[in-house]
Amino acid sequence: MTAMVNLNADMGEGFGAYDIGNDAALLKIVRSANIACGFHASDPVIMQRLVTLAKAQGVSLGAHPGFNDLWGFGRRQILMNTQELEYMVAYQIGALQAMACYAGDPVTHVKPHGALNNMAATDEAMAMAIGRAIKTVDASLIFVAPAGSAMVTAAHRLGLPLAREGFADRRYEDDGTLTPRRISGSVLADAAEAATQVLRMVQAGEVVSRQGNTISMRVDTICVHGDEPSAVVVAGAVRQQLEAAGVAVVRLPDMLAR
Amino acid sequence: MTAMVNLNADMGEGFGAYDIGNDAALLKIVRSANIACGFHASDPVIMQRLVTLAKAQGVSLGAHPGFNDLWGFGRRQILMNTQELEYMVAYQIGALQAMACYAGDPVTHVKPHGALNNMAATDEAMAMAIGRAIKTVDASLIFVAPAGSAMVTAAHRLGLPLAREGFADRRYEDDGTLTPRRISGSVLADAAEAATQVLRMVQAGEVVSRQGNTISMRVDTICVHGDEPSAVVVAGAVRQQLEAAGVAVVRLPDMLAR
Amino acid sequence: MTAMVNLNADMGEGFGAYDIGNDAALLKIVRSANIACGFHASDPVIMQRLVTLAKAQGVSLGAHPGFNDLWGFGRRQILMNTQELEYMVAYQIGALQAMACYAGDPVTHVKPHGALNNMAATDEAMAMAIGRAIKTVDASLIFVAPAGSAMVTAAHRLGLPLAREGFADRRYEDDGTLTPRRISGSVLADAAEAATQVLRMVQAGEVVSRQGNTISMRVDTICVHGDEPSAVVVAGAVRQQLEAAGVAVVRLPDMLAR
Amino acid sequence: MTAMVNLNADMGEGFGAYDIGNDAALLKIVRSANIACGFHASDPVIMQRLVTLAKAQGVSLGAHPGFNDLWGFGRRQILMNTQELEYMVAYQIGALQAMACYAGDPVTHVKPHGALNNMAATDEAMAMAIGRAIKTVDASLIFVAPAGSAMVTAAHRLGLPLAREGFADRRYEDDGTLTPRRISGSVLADAAEAATQVLRMVQAGEVVSRQGNTISMRVDTICVHGDEPSAVVVAGAVRQQLEAAGVAVVRLPDMLAR
Question: How many CB atoms lie under 10 A from the CB of residue A79?
């Protein structure tokens, strides 16, 4: 059986006259796009353009819901109750589903953004709220969740399709969490090193921690970032390395269909 | 064949801590609800509550998209190009469709709000943009448009299901347009008079203009307002009068299914 | 020397078409108004109206800055860094100062709103950030802070004029904090009881805690709420009782001028 | 007497994580900055940074109020009544005044942005509304208005200090209005040509129209744009050419003090 993995990236995170990221370059590297839905970034015009561009590149569509916080780009924690949070996520999924009609391609996954993602990674009530939103709107949507997070548990409990996510360019701790950015060496800026880490996750289901230990890390999808030009280079190297090693880089729905 | 008509009202137009209108009272009178979608009013929590309440009363669900203008409650004209406008409407329809999943009831119609509705009533390019948004997201959605407006033409051109709308409490001019509010007598505050006007539209397909002439006015649905307590009384009287005259007051999908 | 105290209330917390609270009734009872500044509530039109109404009633003007969170009415905690928070507060003070030019009356105090107020009551860094904003914009502005809070400390450290605030209708714990609302009896709905509590704070500088102990509680201003009609009754009773007991109810600047 | 002119540019038009324009480069060329105030662009953090940077370069501070339209970057016409518009402008001026306290430099001028500027250039009621906002908040603020526009008339009627504005890189029609962008040759992309046009305005008070006629064009300030790198080159060439010709390039307050 051929080894497979998905590559995903956040996209469509501009707003109105503002542009950010490297969507065009990333669309040629990844196989699934997490598209901002108008709360932490994006607007209907950008969403329409992104779904069309992604479709043209054969990239599968995902919703990337975030907090209602354009000023903070969804990176600020906002404390709301779980009902508000659930409906906020459902609303954003629906908005992208409508825009996806312009591409004639369905939305097939959901990946929370920024502070929402970070909080729900450890907060079970938030993870379940996001899961319920997904399940209510479309129970066939794939919940993309950091490997080992509370969202993985929520997906299991709710019976949702799940894609466990690993990071190409981030170091891991012994307990499987990401090394905080304030610690030196938390980001792998070297493309070769990132590609090696990804390959080991995909082929062996493990990663070498910052502490130097080999820990279990089974992943279905790898997140690559595009905020800086260098990140695009890393992403490209990761894909090339994966394919050189015979790993198939596929869309999320194909990943879970095996 | 039994005479039929639909009654519709705008709802869910609060925001966060703010409430407005008489949704609970109107849900007992009308058969179709136009639910604000978060741009001129409403939020995900209100939308979830409204679809659930409407479902419980057997009231059919419609999207009520407006300009991105909470401060102006969607009553200010905003000049954007037709692509922006089209995608803005599509986004809002999708958002409500997702929230409607909480009621297990589909969205079955779309009626633009405020300045968007007024502008598109006479602006063909805007009317077509709204129509394209509806057609792209779900070509079976009923386009609720003022009788005789450019949106009626757009619905025909695009092959969309159409419900022509009349007003219970507004006077008409000889040319079939509404008498401007600045003209005395433009609003029918008297419940009996409003009910009589509606009955004539439904039974005879005509209305008596401010100038005293009988003009053609074929309608499928009647809009009642709920901003003031008196408006709810008028709406109740209209429904009672219709039923007393043997007119069936039905949901929008049933209206068009005949 | 005559005993004195100030009564303050939050006002102008509507938005666009939305109204909330009982501003007209409260303006006849209190002597200082905390006016929302457009972030958690209010808009330029409401602010202009409020400063004019307050001036006409001889009520002194204060800024009531909150988080940028209209949906959550400023009641949701948002985690931003202290620089962002400081500039956000400064911006709102300036906005109200401009609107106060329409009344020809200066802004004389600042009282944070909702979650911002609750967080800064115990978070020293936030309290100092708010204090620095006040000091930078106008070092003569009175910082209204809950008695015993971190904002009192911040006002002292920064050399800002300070008004310590007590609550008419809330029960206190032995440590001087407010009894959480989830605990039965945390709100004094009885007007006479509220008035008695206020009188004791003003005349003796103490309050009887929920646990039955007499604790120190020196206050310069009393906050009354206006969200419900009953609250207005309580506020009116408090003022009447104070004046019957010979306590002068004065504007905030007069309170500190003694 | 030495010939003088001011150079101004729009700045601080990013938002949160979004950046736009070339503020750093422009601050070395112009003498007055029009700083966005949080409605069409900018936020408290950006405003604080800009006033500090401008102060460091000896650039005078101006408010650049726009419509409440971040999505449309203030370029969409929004139809509101003149009271709403007036208070919206006053609010934004006050917000920047507060942020300017961080630089210890006063706001000395006001220049409307985008659609607001374009509409008020020909709409007298809007021009007067903006003028009243300026006069109410600070009657010593300089109203920067396109030469020949309704805002020039409003400034005269209200007795406000006025700076008439010309454009370096735009062609004029015989009637003194700007050649619409849709007409070929409406933008002067050539730096030398732009500098020549500016020099003639400043030294002779005239400009050669698209039709080839010499028309009167007395200006106090020249607007340069910074949206594209080429625009910065044009701006730099204009300043160099002016100084080479012995024209003093001064701050707006110095321009009017002569």
Answer: 14
